[in-house]
Structure formats: structure tokens, C-alpha cells
């Protein structure tokens, strides 16, 4: 037998097997390479904002394809072409901005926004078509100022009454970075009117302008400038010397991180005065921005009985250590002292919105008095109320103490309006309440309010002339 003849079938089979393996590998590689081109998922289309009503603002249409990428897009509003594009190289995302108010011939009313997108997969590609039914509204809400406030203390509160058209979804007073929403249904005999309590905050420039604003569902905004005389209220600047005992006994225990406690006295104090203070103030802001819609207080607020004011609102404090200024802070309330562990009274009726430990403020109670107005009671040695309790004016909330960053037994008392610390002394003044708040709640208009105030002003003017 010839051995070479017997090896030929074996070699032929091996060659065929090799060719088959190469063919299968080639087909697999080709399938792997072409697999994305056979995708079945169409492009995705999203709208920002996703609203069925549009105004003078812009709509962003975000078109994406995570597979082969976008090959073409087309956007139309009614019969008006917004965008039509073919991509030489597929793209993963395309954003089209539509500003209806800037389109020629656009009219208010119903319209259809159509978006067509096709990807770059094989054959014709996957197509996505979205038709969004819109209402185009280009007319801002109306505003009517019923009663204004002609004088506002720097750091204090003003009050206005106004009306806006039914299409407004938000309204209130804007000043600087702050916004104070209006409250509806609190003005007697005028359920359609709004009362807005607003502040000219202590940390806002004196020349900042307050503006009454109303915005509808479509984002259209109407603005009206408020005109008032800003009465200067001088805030003090003071230096506080930090002793070693204060740093060790009061500051260090407030640091939760054991490692941070080992830092220098200066570093530990700055950590507490900056980081922890900000965390505490952020918590106060969060609590005092969520208010009950009804007024729970009545008349003037009361100062802690028999108390003496030891520190004022918005004092700018510079802290000194070893004769060196190491940090600063604003004191956002009044420090009131009587005797140790003195009973703390509610300044007015309200609901307990917070009760517990609050870092530098120690044991703290915050009362919600309605329509954005809150009072805060800090450094308490004990707390006798809980969240959700309804309290009456002069009801006992707890006792004074020196918890938190207090250097001695006293009450830290603060007033907040929609998350903003405001001048407390106004709310203790029955005349200020009677002149600025009560007539507006009673439904009086601006002219009638000013007329009732004229006699007292004229009398005061005559008395002033006699004194001169």
C-alpha cells in the first residue's frame, strides 16, 4: 500500500475543516461588525420643559440615538419648518431650540409640534415620529396693586395687596435673589386678592429694587416695580473675644468628627462657625419656607416677659482669638436674658414646625404662624412641645439655657419670613401692626389706608413745630 495515497483524504478533510473555521470566523466577525447597523430601536425624543402650554420662553427638543446615531431630523410647528438636517456623519444627540414667539406669523391658540428623526441603521433606518399638541399663549398675566407700602425698614418687612388674572400660577415679590410669594384668601371680603409680606433683607443692597411679579403656565411674566422709601436701620458691628475655656467647653463638643476635634482651636472654631452654622441655617431655611396657608397669629407679637435685649438683629460679629480676627458672622436674631432657666413663651399663636437640637442654636423650637411667618427660640435648656402641637400666645415652649454656641443662659429669638431672617422688633410693635398689616387684612385699599394715617401724621407734624 502507498502511504501517501492514504494521507490525501485526511489532509483534504483538515483543509476543509480549516476553511470552514475561517468561514465561520469571518461570518461571526462580519455579524459582530454589522450588528449595530441592524438595530431595531428608534431614536428617542424629549421636550424641556415637557409642557402642553408654551409662551415667550424656549422649548428644547433633545433627540438622541445610542445605537448607530442620528441620520436626519425634521421639526415643524404647524406648517412652519423649524429645523431640517441630514448628517454626513451620524451624531448621538441633537438639540433643537424653539422660541414660538419669534416665529413669523405665529398666533395664539392650538398648534401641533411635530418631530421626525431617523437613525443610521441599515436599509431605511429606524424612524421616530412624535406629534405634541400645544397651546400657544403669548400674553402675560395682569397685575393690579390694591394697597402698597410706602415705608420699609432696611432688614424689615413690607406688606402689599394685589390682584392678578386667573391664568397666573405664581405671584409675589422679587428682590435680589429672594422671592416672597403672595397668599390668597386672607384678605377680608376679597377672596381673589393676594397679601404679600416681603422683606428688604439685611444682606441685600440698599438700592435693590423690589418687583411684583406674576407668571402663567406658559412662563409669561408680568412685572411691576414697587416704590417705597427704605428707612435706614443701622446695624452694629462688634468684636467678640474667644477664650480657651469657651473653645474647649462650647465649640469642640459641637464637632461630630473626632479627628476634626484634634485640630487647632482656631481651625475647630472656623469649622463650627462656617460649616456647622451653614448647615443649621440651611435647616432653618428649609423649615421656614414651608408655611401653612392660613394666618394663625393675631395682633402684635410679644417679647419674652421681663427680658433685656443683650444682642441685636444682624449684628456683624468679628471673632478674635489671641488678638487676631479669625472669622465673622451675622447674628440673625435678638438675645434676650432674664434669669437662668426662665420659662420661654410663644410670641404669638401658631404650630410647632421644629423642636430639637439645631447645632449652634442648641435645643430649638420653631413656630409656624402662617403665610410664611415663623419665630425661632434657641439655646433652650429644655423643650416642652413637639412638632405638630398648636400653641397659643404666651404658652410655655420650654426654658432658657446655654445649649449650642451660647456663652451664657439666654434666649436667642428670631423672626423668619419665607426662609429669610427679618427684623424682629417690628412684630413687637402694635402700632406698626395696626398701620401696616391690619388695614390690608381688613380689605382696605391704599388710598383709604393712607387717609386713616394722615391725621396722626398731621398731629405729629404740628407737635414737632411746637417743639421747635
Give a description of the structure.
With 468 residues, this protein is α+β, with helices and mostly antiparallel strands. It folds into 3 domains: 38-136, Immunoglobulins (Immunoglobulin-like), CATH 2.60.40.10; 143-231, Immunoglobulin-like (Sandwich); 237-422, Distorted Sandwich (Glucose Permease (Domain IIA)). 22% of the residues lie in helices and 39% in strands. It is built from 7 helices and 32 strands. Strands 20, 23, 25, 26, 27, 29, 31 and 32 form an 8-stranded antiparallel sheet that branches. A hairpin with a 4-residue loop joins strand 16 and strand 17 (221-225). The longest helix has 32 residues, at 3-34. The chain is flat and about 115 Å long. The relative contact order is 0.10.
What helical percentage do the residues reach?
10-25%
The total of beta strands comes to: 32
Largest sheet: 8 strands, antiparallel
Q: In the CATH hierarchy, what is the architecture of the largest domain at level 2?
A: Distorted Sandwich
Poorly predicted parts: 455-468
Level-1 CATH class name of the largest domain: Mainly Beta
Structural class: alpha+beta
Looking at the structure, what is the overall shape? flat
Radius of gyration: 34 Å
Mean pLDDT: 88
CATH superfamily of the largest domain: Glucose Permease (Domain IIA)
End-to-end separation in angstroms reads 146 Å
Amino acid at each position: 500500500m502507498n502511504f501517501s495515497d492514504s494521507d490525501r483524504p485526511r489532509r483534504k478533510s483538515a483543509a476543509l475543516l480549516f476553511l470552514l473555521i475561517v468561514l465561520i470566523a469571518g461570518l461571526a466577525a462580519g455579524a459582530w461588525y454589522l450588528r449595530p447597523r441592524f438595530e431595531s430601536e428608534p431614536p428617542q425624543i424629549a421636550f424641556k420643559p415637557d409642557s402642553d402650554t408654551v409662551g415667550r420662553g424656549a422649548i428644547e427638543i433633545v433627540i438622541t440615538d445610542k445605537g448607530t446615531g442620528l441620520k436626519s431630523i425634521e421639526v415643524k410647528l404647524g406648517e412652519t419648518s423649524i429645523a431640517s438636517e441630514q448628517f454626513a456623519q451620524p451624531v448621538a444627540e441633537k438639540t433643537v431650540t424653539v422660541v414660538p414667539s419669534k416665529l413669523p406669523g405665529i398666533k395664539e391658540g392650538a398648534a401641533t409640534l411635530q418631530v421626525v428623526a431617523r437613525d443610521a441603521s441599515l436599509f431605511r433606518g429606524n424612524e421616530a415620529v412624535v406629534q405634541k399638541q400645544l397651546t400657544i399663549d403669548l400674553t402675560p398675566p395682569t397685575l393690579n396693586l390694591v394697597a402698597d407700602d410706602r415705608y420699609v425698614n432696611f432688614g424689615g418687612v413690607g406688606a402689599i395687596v394685589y390682584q392678578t388674572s386667573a391664568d397666573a400660577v405664581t405671584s409675589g415679590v422679587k428682590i435680589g435673589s429672594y422671592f416672597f410669594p403672595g397668599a390668597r384668601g386672607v384678605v377680608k371680603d376679597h377672596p381673589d386678592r393676594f397679601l404679600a409680606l416681603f422683606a428688604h433683607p439685611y444682606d441685600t443692597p440698599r438700592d435693590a429694587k423690589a418687583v411684583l411679579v406674576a407668571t402663567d403656565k406658559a412662563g409669561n411674566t408680568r412685572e411691576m416695580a414697587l416704590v417705597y422709601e427704605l428707612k435706614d436701620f443701622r446695624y452694629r458691628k462688634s468684636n467678640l473675644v474667644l477664650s480657651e475655656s469657651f473653645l474647649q467647653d462650647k465649640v469642640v463638643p459641637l464637632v461630630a468628627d473626632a479627628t476634626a476635634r484634634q485640630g487647632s482651636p482656631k481651625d475647630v472654631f472656623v469649622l463650627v462657625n462656617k460649616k456647622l452654622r451653614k448647615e443649621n441655617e440651611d435647616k432653618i431655611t428649609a423649615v421656614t419656607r414651608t408655611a401653612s396657608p392660613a394666618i394663625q397669629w393675631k395682633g402684635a407679637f410679644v417679647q419674652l416677659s421681663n427680658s433685656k435685649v443683650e444682642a441685636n438683629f444682624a449684628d456683624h460679629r468679628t471673632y478674635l482669638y489671641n488678638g487676631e480676627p479669625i472669622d465673622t458672622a451675622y447674628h440673625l436674631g435678638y438675645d434676650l436674658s432674664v434669669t437662668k432657666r426662665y420659662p420661654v413663651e410663644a410670641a404669638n399663636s401658631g404650630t410647632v414646625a421644629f423642636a430639637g437640637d439645631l447645632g449652634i442654636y442648641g435645643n430649638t423650637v420653631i413656630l409656624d404662624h402662617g403665610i410664611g411667618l415663623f419665630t425661632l427660640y434657641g439655646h433652650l435648656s429644655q423643650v416642652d412641645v413637639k412638632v405638630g402641637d398648636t400653641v397659643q400666645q404666651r404658652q410655655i415652649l420650654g426654658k432658657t439655657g446655654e445649649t449650642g454656641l451660647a456663652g451664657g443662659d439666654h434666649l436667642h429669638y428670631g423672626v423668619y419670613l419665607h426662609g429669610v431672617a427679618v427684623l424682629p422688633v417690628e412684630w413687637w410693635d402694635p402700632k406698626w401692626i395696626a398701620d401696616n398689616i391690619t388695614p390690608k387684612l381688613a380689605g382696605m385699599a391704599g388710598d383709604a389706608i393712607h387717609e386713616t394715617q394722615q391725621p396722626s401724621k398731621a398731629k405729629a407734624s404740628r407737635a414737632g413745630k411746637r417743639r421747635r
